[in-house]
Protein backbone atom coordinates (compact mmCIF):
# COMPACT_ATOMS: atom_id res chain seq x y z
CA UNK A 1 0.00 0.00 0.00
CA UNK A 2 2.89 2.37 0.71
CA UNK A 3 4.24 1.98 -2.83
CA UNK A 4 0.88 2.79 -4.37
CA UNK A 5 0.67 6.46 -3.38
CA UNK A 6 4.04 7.74 -4.70
CA UNK A 7 3.52 5.76 -7.89
CA UNK A 8 0.07 7.29 -8.34
CA UNK A 9 1.36 10.81 -7.70
CA UNK A 10 4.14 10.27 -10.24
CA UNK A 11 1.58 9.18 -12.84
CA UNK A 12 -0.55 12.21 -12.00
CA UNK A 13 2.45 14.53 -12.45
CA UNK A 14 3.26 12.95 -15.82
CA UNK A 15 -0.35 13.25 -16.97
CA UNK A 16 -0.49 16.91 -15.89
CA UNK A 17 2.74 17.76 -17.74
CA UNK A 18 1.60 15.78 -20.79
CA UNK A 19 -1.79 17.51 -20.92
CA UNK A 20 -0.15 20.93 -20.52
CA UNK A 21 2.15 20.16 -23.45
CA UNK A 22 -0.82 19.11 -25.57
CA UNK A 23 -2.70 22.31 -24.66
CA UNK A 24 0.26 24.52 -25.60
CA UNK A 25 0.74 22.53 -28.82
CA UNK A 26 -2.92 22.95 -29.77
CA UNK A 27 -2.73 26.68 -28.97
CA UNK A 28 0.31 27.06 -31.23
CA UNK A 29 -1.41 25.15 -34.03
CA UNK A 30 -4.57 27.23 -33.56
CA UNK A 31 -2.71 30.55 -33.60
CA UNK A 32 -0.82 29.49 -36.74
CA UNK A 33 -4.07 28.39 -38.41
CA UNK A 34 -5.60 31.72 -37.42
Please describe what this structure looks like.
88% of the residues lie in helices and 0% in strands. It is built from one helix and no strands. It is mainly α and 34 residues long. The protein is rod-shaped. The model has no long low-confidence stretch (mean pLDDT 86). The N and C termini lie far apart (49 Å). 0% of the residues are buried.
Instruction: Give start-end ranges of low-pLDDT stretches.
Output: none
Biggest beta sheet attributes: none
Structural class: mainly alpha
Query: What is the strand tally?
Result: 0
Shape: rod-shaped
Strand content: under 5%
Number of DSSP helical runs: 1
SSE string:
H
- The radius of gyration computed from the alpha-carbon positions, rounded to a whole number of angstroms, is 15 Å
Overall pLDDT confidence = 86
* Multimerization state: single chain
Helix fraction, binned, reads over 70%
The first-to-last residue Cα distance is: 49 Å
Amino acid sequence: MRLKHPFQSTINNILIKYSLNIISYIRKKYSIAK
